[in-house]
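writing this on my phone so excuse typos. first protein, seq and then structure
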Amino acid sequence: MSIHAMESPASVVLEPPAPRRPIAARISWAACSPCLAAAVALLLHHVLPDQQTSFPSTGRYVLLLEILLGLGVLGIVLQLILPKARPFVSSKAPLLALAIVAFCAWDLITLKFAWMPLPYFPGPDMVLRGLVDEWRPLLINASHSLLLLASGYGIGTALGLISGVSMGWSSRVRYWGMPVLKLVGPIPATALIPLAMAVFSSSFFSGAALIALAVWFPVTMLTASGVSNVRMSYLDVARTMGASRLFLIFRVALPAATPSIFIGLFMGLGAAFLTLIAAETVGVSAGLGYYLKWRQAYCEYDKVYAALLVMAIFFSAVMTALFKVRDRLLVWQKGVIKW
């Protein structure tokens, strides 16, 4: 019997457990940045005197900073109790801190120092008051803008895909269609507002037509470019397997051209936002652009800036939704194309 076999289990030396990391080591500095920014913003707001005294304070800006401070504390707690949440908190916390710094700078240059005078540059407290007081009209006008945007963007996308695929696949269609595209496409859709109002009896249809025109050009151009640049090897392999023309178009050319098509969709969405606001300020009798012009006529700039905040949130949500659709449809190209 060997010596090792005669050793008792009690003689086996157990390694001591790894020392637990201190709390300070488990919290990243990035996670603490929102708390620090919110605390400084609250301190400056309470210490510095107000220079814009035309309107009494409502306390909504202070409440917003307290909510953001609470979110920062919540992020620190999540880093302590949920190790899997640490990467998410560390990546999003600096963005939250930057937003707080922007609010603080806005408060300083308007309410505290009055470098930008009233009524054209209200402070964040006044804008938040207008946002809370006008939430119902803003919501109604945002729904009108969403309906108009969806109608025009859907029509423009459908027409752009049809014309883009036709021009990218057929040299004959490209011969006749490309001059028309180069002639009509570069014209800003907003320059055609008087013509659209004369052609369409309804302001909604005229706005939808203008948005569709603004979307049609980039979608057509990028779709045609993507389809025409599909690798011939893909098409040759499909032909040798007996693929029909429709199969080549819809199962080979379109999937290969999808990244280029989405670039056109994003460019068209940006053009649709610009055309939407221009159409609503001129002819459409409802929407965020209409509300913006209406409040500006009465010099209610707190409500004007509230409408701009709603526009930013609205457009950002639509853009984020398109990003989600792209990620879902292009999951098969993950790691190949970087956006």
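second protein below, same order as before
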Amino acid sequence: MNIHEYQARNLLSEYDISVPKGEVAEDIDQAICIYRKLNNKRAVIKAQVHSGGRGKAGGVRIAENEDDVSRICSEMFGRRLITKQTGKEGKVIEKVLLCEASSIDKELYFALTVDRSSESVTMIVSPMGGVDIEEVSATAPNEIGKIIISTEAGMKDYQAYSAASFLGLNSKQTKVFCRICRNTYRLFIEKDCSLIEMNPLAVSGDELIPVDIKINFDDNGLFRHPEIVELKDEHQENEREAEAFRSNVTYVALDGNIGCLVNGAGLAMATMDAIALHGGKPANFLDIGGGASAKRVEDALRIILMDRNVKGIIINIFGGITSCVSIAEGIVEAVKAVDISVPLVVRLEGNGAKEGKELLERSPIRMTMARSMDCAAIKMIEMLKEMEQ
């Protein structure tokens, strides 16, 4: 789950991490009032959308006076900001963040993220902040430092000092940096974060200032944090992904035309690979999980069909603890509630597969049965090609 930068700033403040003075505005008049609170100083105006690369797309601007604030905000509010991460549709700017422009001597990169290979939190730092870390990794990999933090032992002082040394900080800056490290790590653990990124973390004299902040949360930990769930801005999310979140279905929208309804994340990824291998393009990643009820299958089909690009659907189920019979019953009940006008290919394997197939074959549902995952992908792609002719 993503949150806006102004919300991330508030969280950092709660954990005693200083951020530039500023507030969020939802209209021009409010923006001007905030600017006056900043004592009419030079201000940064940032579009509040869930995307990186805002600066390159015109979503971060400098205002020198009230006229600048009024003009910039009028150009931002209601506009669709298009970045590399938003896709061609972009995201509508409904809020802007106004904050004091910081005096910057040097820009650093600082982040905490989850390293799945070591099953621990990793601190990533670089003296080359202010640009995409992927770009730094590709052009100057030696400028990136990584420190694995044990989730059992937590962040140790020597690790923070080691990172500060890598960044070339002096003794006073190191003291500030170590406090930021400790407090950020505490926030990361206590709120079940998956990423906290400060880019740049600006050096200003002996102070370090998080100028741009990004925080993501692990969806699986949100049940522990209703206060974080309240920060969710569904207007900034893909409509289908927002609906999937409400329906407890794991869904990621893609740009293909073959919808996928699968149980299990690994099988879902394998299904997408099979589609791509045979020349098709998956429209989504979707994992309905174990024990999928008729309602869950119905929700999943409805979410897939919300995508107008979907021209066909593959249902790929491996019965383990959950019997394929239960899944088949769920499909039958779901199709009664959801009008499916696109081709449907179903593959069942594992526990109760034979009985599940027989149940589907006796049903009035128009579908094509497939004996394997590859077969399902090939059949679907062939059907779509015939429809195009």
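Residues 113 and 195 are 5 Å apart (CA to CA). thats all i got for now
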